Amino acid sequence: MAAFSMLDILRNFRRKACGTALTGAGSALAVMCLGAPSLWAAGEGSSSGQPLLYSAHGALSHAMQAPGVVAQTQHSPDRQALFTRDGQKVPPSSAVRKDTAADAKQAASTFIRNMGMQPHPYSNYPSEQFGVYGENGRELLERVNIPLHEGDPITNDGPPLPRPEALFQKMRWNEWLRERGVAFMLDNTNEFAGAITSPTKGLGLKQGASNSGQYSFENDIDWNKLAGIRGFQTHIIGVGRYGISASKMFGDNVNPSQEIYGGGGNVVFHLIHFYGEETLWGGRLNIAAGRMSTNTDFANSPIYCNFMNNAFCGNPKAVTDSYTRSSYPGTSWGARVRGRPTNSTYIQVGIYFPERGIYGVQENRTGFKFNGATISGVVTPIEAGWEPEFGKQHLPGHYKVGFAPDTSDHYLGVYNPPNRRNGWRTLMTIPNCPTCQGVGDEVPGTGKRRNFNWSLWFLADQMIMRNKTQDTPEGGLVAFFDAYWNKAATAMRGKLYAFGLVDTGFWPARPLDTVGVSFSYTGSSRYTRDAQRFQIEHGMAPAPGSAYYESGGAPLMWGSYGVQRWGSTLEATYRIHVMRGVTFAPDFQYYFNPGMQRVLKDAAMLGFKSHVQFF
């Protein structure tokens, strides 16, 4: 109320002063009143429903569009008598508009903005993200990585809909829909990579290159704008994917060189997200439910996809080692509740119902299988985060820890040593094992069913230096470190560690470019190692150079040529902002122990990642 009262007092004072000044031609105050690009005009015009009247010296508020004011302007020798409204010339007879009452809330909002006290919605990103890379759907997960601030005092609504910069930024039909709360986006991500080193000989491997990518369609609806349902939004995302990963050619089956590969079902349109979310209390509480990816909200970060390797871009592979943690583009039925007790902390908990075969074409090729016939249990992840801002430059950081237990059945390729209690089970086959073919099907100890699993993670990223670039207010040098652990008895990957640096806006001449370097370490679980050793010791693996290798098959569980222990990837990339909505990123990757296998030579790759946001 205080802001509204002060605004009314100032506006009344200005009206009286300008009215008095305009009775005498040539008055300095009259010139000031006529020529001011009025802050009040912006506040009054938007609430009156009528476009503003413009002179050569700026907007005239509806309060100033009185016959005396217009006549005085037309006859002043030092003033231009031409008036425009919405860019069109206005004849003198229609230039006069009656004064209308200003909407108090809108006027106050305009006053606050012009005085440098702009109210922040709980997203601290601008409404249009210039140069920020993000496949469709990625900006939705950024909402868990942004401080609350003080909420939106005007509408108390949800966060703004995603609006990345685009090749065709302002098409009339799309702008008309956005004004009514309906956003459509179409983009393409393409990734090419090729080995520049020769592979290990005698195993049927080869040196080669391949291309993969996806086009995606996204629809987001703000139902407050569309139908007056405050805080409610819906999100639909579908993709079409193509190509294969090049790193498979030299034997890596753990960290694909192209993260965009796989899971799309080889169909024109594969449905991914189909869910709604409700934002309450200025962002203090957010509830989402529908067809969702578990790892869109949990154990993830928008920093990851500055890179191309699948060690952690997309979704970290250690977290997605089990089918129960649905990963983009796989989804399951679920719900998630996120609360923010303070501006810089949050806690979120979810409940998801994983389905067997979500990545296979037999059960979920198109993404439209909604009946839940293959639901196998319940996953209940929980994550707590701290999002501080340090120093005078308000350097943002994100620190989060999470835990995800599940009750699903697991028949994974892990080894359980024979004993009196399980001796009769040691020769059971592995049901529904997508990576075990031919020789690797029957492995002693691998048929034991387990119905409890868990994973644990810690993620941290911190901006350590801010770059002063006008176009990228979030630009700066960011360091990150991530750690993931899985229950060894139900996972092929036991752990993953990653760290790196990402810098945006470091070059004043190229403020929208980004450079990054990352390193990841992946270690197998001891159960995986024991099972593969048993295969080798008991003659279950063909000899090197046999016809089996020449056919392109891998002899051991999980598509391995030797016992899987550990492997690492080093990646360096430079993302070039080519033009509005277009980025191109040359990329270098180096594999230490490809596929966590010491029997394979290290490999180096060159490639690129491009992204085009059409609208």
Strand order of the largest sheet: 5-6-7-8-9-10-11-12-14-15-16-17-18-19-20-21
Q: Quote the beta fraction.
A: 25-35%
Q: What's the CATH H-level homologous superfamily of the largest domain?
A: Carbohydrate-selective porin OprB
- Work out the helix count: 12
Net shape: globular
Query: Tell me, what is the CATH class of the largest domain?
Result: Mainly Beta
Beta strand count:
21
Task: Give the N-to-C terminal Cα separation.
Answer: 41 Å
Kindly state the percentage of residues in helix.
10-25%
Segments where pLDDT lies below 50 for 5+ residues? 1-7, 16-70, 72-81, 93-102, 111-133, 149-153, 415-441
Q: Which whole number gives the mean pLDDT?
A: 74
Q: What structural category do the secondary elements indicate?
A: alpha+beta
Instruction: Tell me the radius of gyration.
Output: 30 Å
The CATH topology assignment of the largest domain is Porin
Q: Which architecture name of the largest domain does CATH use? A: Beta Barrel
Number of domains: 2
Largest sheet: 16 strands, antiparallel, barrel
